[in-house]
Amino acid sequence: MSSEGPNDVLWLAAKGLLLLYFCSSAYHIRCHAINEYGPIIHEFDPWFNMRATQYLADNGWTEFFHWFDHRSWYPLGRPVGTTIYPGMQITSVCIWKALEWFGISMSLNDVCVYIPTWFGVLATLFLGLLTKECSGSANAGLAAAGVMSIIPAHIMRSVGGGYDNESVAVTAMCSTFFFWVRSLRNENSWLYGAAAGLAYIYMVAAWGGYVFVLNMVGVHTIFLVFLGRHSTKLHRAYTLFYIIGTAGAIQVPVVGWTPLKSLEQLGPFGVLIVLQVMEYCEIQRRKKDLTDQEVGVLRVKVALGTLAAGAAAAFVLLPTGYFGPLSSRVRGLFVQHTKTGNPLVDSVAEHQPARPEAYWHYLHYMCYFSPIGFLMCCFRRTDAKYFLVFYAVIAYFFSLKMVRLIILTGPIASALGGMAIAAIVEGALSQLNPKFVIADEDEDEAPAAASSSKGGSGKGAAPAAGKGGDKKAAGKAGVRSKRRAAPPVFGLPDDPLDLLPEEVKTEWSELYASPFGKTLRFAVSAFVLVAGFFAFRTFSAYSHQMAVGMSNPSIVFRARLQNGQEVLINDYLDAYHWLRNSTPYDSRVMAWWDYGYQISGIADRITIADGNTWNHEHIATLGKCLTSEESKAHAIVRHLADYVLVWTGGGGDDLAKSPHMARIGNSVYSDICPDDPLCRHFGFNKDGSPTPTMAVSLLYKLHAHNQQGPVQVNSTLFKEVFTSRYNMVRIYKVRKVSKKSKKWLADPANRICDAPGSWYCNGQYPPAMAKLIAKRKSFKQLEDFNKEGQTAQDLEYQRKYMQGMNQGPA
Q: Which residues, listed in sequence order, are joined to residue 720 by a DSSP beta bridge?
């Protein structure tokens, strides 16, 4: 190996400084919220994550995984230890303790606030490595890291204070994908499959989106087999990845045995079986020196035997309910938004399909550069490049179905865009001066390329190299000469130049070498570099502007009054602080499920429901309370709550959400909107006046009390105790609370444990609510095919619901 020249060292130093700049950008662009509002947790879900992290830090590992929280989902409670993805919490506590061990003083709250910024930097690095591995170009990896550091599609879930699972999970996903493609580099790299499995375990612990990662690797693998690219390295790498990854995944309590039971995760297991069949046949080929025809016959025989065994197992297990159905959220990826059949899922705004402008909003210029990178992956194909192709197609498909999943397009858009940018810049610089560009292929690619060629040295060998740059050029050419051209796939050649007729190539070569061609190349290259510089500045400015907009904590924000004065709106925080400071610790606060995490995390008061949304029937009961006539609602509320909190600030307040409350409630209590699954009569008329059912509802009364004409709550049932400064939040005290029910619910003897002395003890509704609960009908969705007992009424409800959704608003 020759020593590097001074120019090479300078280029490497420049690349290193550029990478440090990108890492710095990734960190600082995510700190807007911290700089503006201080170290505060954002939104809704992050408050639960913070509360869970604090519980882990205070009580330790064992107590955390045996935590049954009776202060949420009252009166039922929630077994947090078995329903949480704990990776982020464990990471935060480990970092906090490590900092403490090194003598660095930093509160746990601040660690949680900064976690998204730190992991944003790590995601940038891993995405750069992934792109470098797939493209074979360090320059492409560097450009991709630059894009990833500031692309809005990643920032949307990784701003400082946005302590949500995705902020860690994107890093885990990028690391898993990097180690996976690294395991396919050459015949000796399959051990990286084990590293991919370990990274995948962390992904599983961090986010429910691990299902995408698992299936992405499985799809890549099975398509490589179908394309005739099966190899021993593929078999070994995938086997290590799947076995290690699955063995670790089932240790995560919330996951358990679902990788071997859930329909959405059984596909990769099937890929594992296919690879074992293929490898067994290849072993027999080598051992018995079988011909291709004999191997084909053997594959058919082994495959048929395996299929028969699998069919027999499925036949035995299917009636037992062993296989879990597709979840409503996954099912929603294959049907139009608001048409999953579940009004609870349909009510979440993040589940709406992505519109075309959303891609420009979150990807900006990468909408132009990514398709170029995609086309580059279609030529000079490798196992790793195929991964980017499949990732792009799958991520785009699912993001079209659900706007929240645009987060998955951030890494792939950065990778493909980085490849295109690097190729364009390299080409332009080489036209200005060939010394501006140095070869950046991995040196250990050469053995892999050599091993793939049919012959050794011979006619295809590179000519003897001279000194300096000629020697490098010859070496580079030598590597390329050893690369065997891949056969066409779907009629597409491996080399893009093969698409051109020979006469066109000849004419182009002559024009390229002519004086006019040289002048034109110089002018175009200079223009491209200047335009690229300004494009980068525009993209960077746009990303920072987007980052500022995404950094709004929502719980505190800036707004302008009608007189133009800018003010800090902290109504929500004030309301939660009022609850914390002005109500007893055992106070129960009823509010729509959206605000449950904030109430429990900030106010530290008992909540009825929150964003976990695990119990459809319980949320429906909450919906019935809020949408029923005031006195009827009070008859239920008095057994469950001491206070009722409503958002009243307009926009996305509780009145805007009220149709969803009614629909969800009606899916279980059909008397809310008789014979009308969409509850079209619960809302407002065209003139803005409430419909009769809306006008008498508890929610409307609490919202409009003493503010809209003569509307008032019944003062014998509810008492207004707090209205925030800008009328964003109102809190009412429930009068005539049933002390008997509250005492009964507080008695641990009235909880149902799964075993004597167990920590897993579900709460129950108080006896006074028995008649209401008896009328409740469990909600069954169309995809719940493992549940027996679906009645004609269930099917008729689904039919009318779907029919109404297809027709749109009345």
A: 732
